[in-house]
Specification:
This protein has 327 residues and is of the alpha/beta class. It folds into two domains: 212 residues, Alpha-Beta Complex (Spore Coat Polysaccharide Biosynthesis Protein SpsA, Chain A); 90 residues, no CATH class. It is built from twelve helices and nine strands. The longest helix has 29 residues. It is globular.
Protein backbone atom coordinates (compact mmCIF):
# COMPACT_ATOMS: atom_id res chain seq x y z
CA UNK A 1 0.00 0.00 0.00
CA UNK A 2 1.26 3.53 -0.77
CA UNK A 3 2.17 5.89 2.03
CA UNK A 4 -0.50 8.49 2.82
CA UNK A 5 0.73 11.80 4.25
CA UNK A 6 -1.89 13.49 6.41
CA UNK A 7 -1.26 17.25 6.51
CA UNK A 8 -2.85 19.43 9.18
CA UNK A 9 -2.78 23.26 9.45
CA UNK A 10 -2.85 24.17 13.11
CA UNK A 11 -2.85 27.17 15.41
CA UNK A 12 -4.08 27.12 19.02
CA UNK A 13 -6.18 23.98 18.64
CA UNK A 14 -5.52 22.43 22.06
CA UNK A 15 -9.19 21.45 22.69
CA UNK A 16 -9.46 19.33 19.51
CA UNK A 17 -5.99 18.37 18.23
CA UNK A 18 -5.90 15.09 20.18
CA UNK A 19 -9.38 14.20 18.92
CA UNK A 20 -7.98 14.44 15.41
CA UNK A 21 -4.82 12.48 16.21
CA UNK A 22 -6.83 9.76 17.96
CA UNK A 23 -9.10 9.49 14.91
CA UNK A 24 -6.06 9.17 12.63
CA UNK A 25 -4.51 6.58 14.94
CA UNK A 26 -7.69 4.48 14.69
CA UNK A 27 -7.82 4.48 10.87
CA UNK A 28 -8.26 1.16 9.11
CA UNK A 29 -5.43 2.14 6.75
CA UNK A 30 -2.17 0.46 7.85
CA UNK A 31 -0.56 2.63 10.51
CA UNK A 32 2.94 2.00 9.18
CA UNK A 33 1.80 3.44 5.83
CA UNK A 34 0.65 6.76 7.31
CA UNK A 35 2.48 9.84 8.49
CA UNK A 36 0.99 12.95 10.11
CA UNK A 37 2.56 16.35 9.51
CA UNK A 38 1.20 19.21 11.60
CA UNK A 39 2.13 22.71 10.39
CA UNK A 40 1.84 24.83 13.52
CA UNK A 41 1.73 28.63 13.50
CA UNK A 42 3.35 29.07 16.92
CA UNK A 43 0.52 27.85 19.14
CA UNK A 44 0.57 29.25 22.67
CA UNK A 45 -2.39 27.44 24.24
CA UNK A 46 -0.85 24.04 24.97
CA UNK A 47 -1.33 22.56 21.49
CA UNK A 48 2.36 21.62 21.16
CA UNK A 49 2.36 19.98 24.58
CA UNK A 50 -0.79 18.02 23.67
CA UNK A 51 0.84 16.76 20.44
CA UNK A 52 4.02 15.84 22.32
CA UNK A 53 2.03 13.90 24.90
CA UNK A 54 0.12 12.05 22.18
CA UNK A 55 3.36 11.12 20.41
CA UNK A 56 4.80 9.68 23.62
CA UNK A 57 1.67 7.60 24.22
CA UNK A 58 1.42 6.43 20.57
CA UNK A 59 4.99 5.89 19.28
CA UNK A 60 3.79 3.61 16.44
CA UNK A 61 2.24 6.55 14.54
CA UNK A 62 4.69 8.87 12.81
CA UNK A 63 3.86 12.47 13.74
CA UNK A 64 5.96 15.51 12.89
CA UNK A 65 5.48 19.18 13.62
CA UNK A 66 6.81 21.75 11.14
CA UNK A 67 6.87 25.49 11.67
CA UNK A 68 4.47 27.85 9.92
CA UNK A 69 5.75 31.33 10.81
CA UNK A 70 3.32 32.99 8.38
CA UNK A 71 0.42 31.62 10.45
CA UNK A 72 -1.98 31.30 7.50
CA UNK A 73 -3.63 28.12 6.21
CA UNK A 74 -2.22 27.98 2.64
CA UNK A 75 1.31 28.49 3.96
CA UNK A 76 0.70 25.75 6.54
CA UNK A 77 -0.43 23.37 3.81
CA UNK A 78 2.59 24.16 1.65
CA UNK A 79 5.03 23.66 4.55
CA UNK A 80 3.44 20.36 5.49
CA UNK A 81 3.32 19.08 1.90
CA UNK A 82 6.97 20.06 1.38
CA UNK A 83 7.85 17.82 4.33
CA UNK A 84 5.60 14.96 3.19
CA UNK A 85 7.03 11.74 1.82
CA UNK A 86 3.84 9.93 0.86
CA UNK A 87 2.44 9.21 -2.59
CA UNK A 88 -0.90 10.69 -1.55
CA UNK A 89 -1.71 13.83 0.45
CA UNK A 90 -4.75 13.74 2.73
CA UNK A 91 -5.63 17.13 4.14
CA UNK A 92 -7.41 17.35 7.48
CA UNK A 93 -8.08 20.19 9.91
CA UNK A 94 -7.20 20.31 13.59
CA UNK A 95 -10.88 20.73 14.51
CA UNK A 96 -12.03 17.66 12.60
CA UNK A 97 -12.20 13.92 13.23
CA UNK A 98 -12.25 11.54 10.23
CA UNK A 99 -14.25 8.31 10.33
CA UNK A 100 -12.11 5.15 10.71
CA UNK A 101 -12.17 4.31 6.99
CA UNK A 102 -11.55 7.89 5.82
CA UNK A 103 -7.95 7.50 4.61
CA UNK A 104 -8.59 4.06 3.10
CA UNK A 105 -11.56 5.34 1.09
CA UNK A 106 -9.66 8.43 -0.09
CA UNK A 107 -6.72 6.34 -1.30
CA UNK A 108 -9.02 3.79 -2.95
CA UNK A 109 -10.91 6.53 -4.83
CA UNK A 110 -7.66 8.10 -6.04
CA UNK A 111 -6.20 4.77 -7.14
CA UNK A 112 -9.45 3.98 -8.98
CA UNK A 113 -9.12 7.26 -10.89
CA UNK A 114 -12.48 8.61 -9.75
CA UNK A 115 -11.09 12.09 -9.22
CA UNK A 116 -7.96 14.20 -9.36
CA UNK A 117 -8.89 15.30 -5.85
CA UNK A 118 -11.40 13.45 -3.69
CA UNK A 119 -13.26 14.23 -0.52
CA UNK A 120 -16.41 13.52 1.38
CA UNK A 121 -19.19 14.83 3.55
CA UNK A 122 -18.95 16.73 6.81
CA UNK A 123 -20.90 15.48 9.81
CA UNK A 124 -21.15 18.87 11.47
CA UNK A 125 -21.15 18.82 15.27
CA UNK A 126 -21.50 21.65 17.75
CA UNK A 127 -18.38 23.11 19.32
CA UNK A 128 -19.92 22.73 22.78
CA UNK A 129 -23.25 21.84 24.37
CA UNK A 130 -24.75 25.35 24.51
CA UNK A 131 -28.05 25.99 22.75
CA UNK A 132 -26.45 28.47 20.37
CA UNK A 133 -23.63 26.11 19.45
CA UNK A 134 -26.16 23.40 18.62
CA UNK A 135 -28.13 25.81 16.44
CA UNK A 136 -24.98 26.99 14.61
CA UNK A 137 -24.03 23.39 13.81
CA UNK A 138 -27.52 22.81 12.38
CA UNK A 139 -27.35 26.03 10.33
CA UNK A 140 -23.96 25.04 8.91
CA UNK A 141 -25.58 21.94 7.39
CA UNK A 142 -28.92 23.48 6.38
CA UNK A 143 -29.59 24.17 2.65
CA UNK A 144 -30.81 27.68 3.55
CA UNK A 145 -27.44 28.36 5.11
CA UNK A 146 -25.11 26.70 2.62
CA UNK A 147 -27.12 26.45 -0.60
CA UNK A 148 -25.86 23.76 -2.98
CA UNK A 149 -22.60 23.04 -1.11
CA UNK A 150 -23.21 19.30 -1.41
CA UNK A 151 -20.40 18.24 0.89
CA UNK A 152 -22.54 19.45 3.79
CA UNK A 153 -25.51 17.17 3.21
CA UNK A 154 -25.52 15.01 0.04
CA UNK A 155 -26.00 11.23 -0.10
CA UNK A 156 -25.01 10.93 -3.77
CA UNK A 157 -21.49 10.51 -5.15
CA UNK A 158 -20.38 12.59 -8.11
CA UNK A 159 -18.21 15.41 -9.44
CA UNK A 160 -18.54 18.76 -7.65
CA UNK A 161 -16.90 22.18 -7.66
CA UNK A 162 -15.07 21.65 -4.35
CA UNK A 163 -14.67 19.29 -1.41
CA UNK A 164 -13.48 19.88 2.14
CA UNK A 165 -10.20 18.31 3.25
CA UNK A 166 -9.30 17.12 -0.23
CA UNK A 167 -6.99 14.17 -0.89
CA UNK A 168 -4.81 14.12 -3.99
CA UNK A 169 -1.55 12.68 -5.38
CA UNK A 170 1.61 14.37 -4.08
CA UNK A 171 2.73 14.75 -7.71
CA UNK A 172 -0.20 17.12 -8.35
CA UNK A 173 1.62 19.88 -6.46
CA UNK A 174 4.61 19.54 -8.80
CA UNK A 175 2.29 19.81 -11.81
CA UNK A 176 0.05 22.66 -10.63
CA UNK A 177 2.07 24.53 -8.07
CA UNK A 178 1.38 25.00 -4.34
CA UNK A 179 -1.60 26.50 -2.53
CA UNK A 180 -1.93 30.23 -3.11
CA UNK A 181 -0.45 32.03 -0.10
CA UNK A 182 -1.97 35.38 -1.08
CA UNK A 183 -5.39 34.06 -0.03
CA UNK A 184 -6.08 33.84 3.70
CA UNK A 185 -9.20 31.72 3.04
CA UNK A 186 -10.72 30.05 -0.03
CA UNK A 187 -7.32 28.52 -0.75
CA UNK A 188 -8.91 25.08 -1.18
CA UNK A 189 -11.57 26.40 -3.56
CA UNK A 190 -8.90 28.18 -5.62
CA UNK A 191 -6.82 24.99 -5.72
CA UNK A 192 -9.81 22.94 -6.86
CA UNK A 193 -10.67 25.57 -9.48
CA UNK A 194 -7.20 25.16 -10.94
CA UNK A 195 -7.71 21.40 -11.05
CA UNK A 196 -11.01 21.77 -12.92
CA UNK A 197 -9.57 24.31 -15.36
CA UNK A 198 -6.86 21.79 -16.25
CA UNK A 199 -9.49 19.17 -17.02
CA UNK A 200 -9.36 17.38 -13.69
CA UNK A 201 -12.28 16.14 -11.59
CA UNK A 202 -13.21 16.91 -8.00
CA UNK A 203 -14.94 13.79 -6.73
CA UNK A 204 -17.22 13.70 -3.71
CA UNK A 205 -18.08 10.37 -2.09
CA UNK A 206 -20.58 10.59 0.79
CA UNK A 207 -19.07 7.41 2.27
CA UNK A 208 -15.93 9.43 2.97
CA UNK A 209 -16.99 11.18 6.14
CA UNK A 210 -15.45 13.36 8.81
CA UNK A 211 -16.77 15.18 11.83
CA UNK A 212 -16.34 18.96 11.70
CA UNK A 213 -16.73 21.02 14.85
CA UNK A 214 -18.59 24.24 14.03
CA UNK A 215 -18.09 27.60 15.71
CA UNK A 216 -19.65 27.88 19.16
CA UNK A 217 -21.02 31.45 19.24
CA UNK A 218 -22.40 34.07 16.88
CA UNK A 219 -19.36 36.32 17.18
CA UNK A 220 -16.99 33.59 15.99
CA UNK A 221 -19.46 32.63 13.25
CA UNK A 222 -19.69 36.25 12.06
CA UNK A 223 -15.90 36.60 11.88
CA UNK A 224 -15.61 33.30 9.99
CA UNK A 225 -18.19 34.24 7.35
CA UNK A 226 -16.88 37.79 6.97
CA UNK A 227 -13.48 36.28 6.09
CA UNK A 228 -15.10 33.85 3.67
CA UNK A 229 -16.91 36.65 1.83
CA UNK A 230 -13.96 39.04 1.89
CA UNK A 231 -11.45 36.60 0.43
CA UNK A 232 -13.90 35.12 -2.06
CA UNK A 233 -13.66 38.38 -4.04
CA UNK A 234 -9.87 38.04 -4.23
CA UNK A 235 -10.24 34.55 -5.64
CA UNK A 236 -13.00 35.53 -8.09
CA UNK A 237 -10.85 38.26 -9.61
CA UNK A 238 -8.71 35.47 -11.04
CA UNK A 239 -11.51 33.04 -11.84
CA UNK A 240 -14.74 35.05 -12.30
CA UNK A 241 -16.45 32.13 -14.01
CA UNK A 242 -16.13 29.99 -10.88
CA UNK A 243 -18.79 31.87 -8.90
CA UNK A 244 -21.84 29.83 -7.85
CA UNK A 245 -25.33 31.10 -7.08
CA UNK A 246 -24.90 30.25 -3.39
CA UNK A 247 -21.96 32.67 -3.32
CA UNK A 248 -23.72 35.45 -5.25
CA UNK A 249 -26.97 35.57 -3.26
CA UNK A 250 -25.66 36.90 0.10
CA UNK A 251 -23.98 40.04 -1.35
CA UNK A 252 -27.01 40.68 -3.58
CA UNK A 253 -29.28 40.38 -0.54
CA UNK A 254 -27.14 42.74 1.57
CA UNK A 255 -26.90 45.21 -1.31
CA UNK A 256 -30.69 45.16 -1.72
CA UNK A 257 -31.14 45.90 1.99
CA UNK A 258 -28.71 48.81 1.80
CA UNK A 259 -30.38 50.20 -1.32
CA UNK A 260 -33.89 49.95 0.10
CA UNK A 261 -32.76 51.44 3.42
CA UNK A 262 -31.24 54.41 1.57
CA UNK A 263 -34.39 54.86 -0.48
CA UNK A 264 -36.56 54.57 2.65
CA UNK A 265 -35.09 57.84 3.89
CA UNK A 266 -36.84 59.65 1.03
CA UNK A 267 -39.82 57.53 0.02
CA UNK A 268 -42.54 55.57 1.87
CA UNK A 269 -42.60 53.10 -1.03
CA UNK A 270 -39.06 52.03 -0.24
CA UNK A 271 -39.98 51.62 3.42
CA UNK A 272 -42.73 49.20 2.45
CA UNK A 273 -40.41 47.30 0.14
CA UNK A 274 -37.75 47.08 2.85
CA UNK A 275 -40.29 45.91 5.42
CA UNK A 276 -41.65 43.37 2.96
CA UNK A 277 -38.24 41.94 2.11
CA UNK A 278 -37.25 41.66 5.76
CA UNK A 279 -40.63 40.18 6.64
CA UNK A 280 -40.43 37.47 3.99
CA UNK A 281 -36.81 36.69 4.90
CA UNK A 282 -37.57 36.47 8.61
CA UNK A 283 -40.66 34.35 7.91
CA UNK A 284 -38.70 31.82 5.86
CA UNK A 285 -36.01 31.52 8.54
CA UNK A 286 -38.55 31.18 11.34
CA UNK A 287 -40.32 28.38 9.46
CA UNK A 288 -36.98 26.63 9.01
CA UNK A 289 -36.26 27.05 12.72
CA UNK A 290 -39.69 25.72 13.64
CA UNK A 291 -39.31 22.64 11.43
CA UNK A 292 -35.81 21.96 12.77
CA UNK A 293 -37.01 22.25 16.36
CA UNK A 294 -39.81 19.77 15.65
CA UNK A 295 -37.46 17.37 13.89
CA UNK A 296 -34.91 17.40 16.72
CA UNK A 297 -37.39 17.98 19.56
CA UNK A 298 -35.19 20.84 20.77
CA UNK A 299 -36.55 24.38 21.06
CA UNK A 300 -33.02 25.80 20.79
CA UNK A 301 -33.41 25.66 17.01
CA UNK A 302 -36.60 27.73 17.00
CA UNK A 303 -34.66 30.98 17.44
CA UNK A 304 -31.07 29.80 17.18
CA UNK A 305 -31.25 28.46 13.62
CA UNK A 306 -32.72 31.69 12.12
CA UNK A 307 -30.15 33.78 14.00
CA UNK A 308 -27.24 31.64 12.82
CA UNK A 309 -28.35 31.55 9.18
CA UNK A 310 -28.95 35.32 9.17
CA UNK A 311 -25.44 35.91 10.56
CA UNK A 312 -23.97 33.63 7.87
CA UNK A 313 -25.80 35.47 5.06
CA UNK A 314 -25.28 39.02 6.30
CA UNK A 315 -21.61 38.73 7.20
CA UNK A 316 -20.64 36.70 4.13
CA UNK A 317 -22.41 39.26 1.93
CA UNK A 318 -21.00 42.25 3.83
CA UNK A 319 -17.45 40.88 3.70
CA UNK A 320 -17.84 40.31 -0.04
CA UNK A 321 -19.10 43.86 -0.67
CA UNK A 322 -16.45 45.42 1.57
CA UNK A 323 -13.75 43.58 -0.36
CA UNK A 324 -15.17 45.03 -3.59
CA UNK A 325 -15.16 48.56 -2.10
CA UNK A 326 -11.59 48.18 -0.84
CA UNK A 327 -10.46 47.57 -4.42
Amino acid sequence: MPVASIVVPCYNEQPTICLLLEAVYNQTYPREQMEVIVADGGSSDGTREAIRGFCEAHPDLRIRVVENPQRIIPAALNRAIAAAGGKFIVRLDAHSAPQPDYVARCVAALEAGLGTSVGGVWDIRSGNSSWMARAIAAAAAHPLGVGDARYRYTTRAGSVDTVPFGAFPRALIDQMGPFDETLLTNEDYEFNTRIRRRGGTIWLDPQIRSVYFARSDLGALARQYWRYGYWKVRMLRRYPGSIRWRQALPPVFVLSLLGLAAGAVFSPAFRWLLAGELGVYAGVLLVAGFLSSLQRMDFAYLLGLPLAIAVMHLFWGSGFLWSLVRK
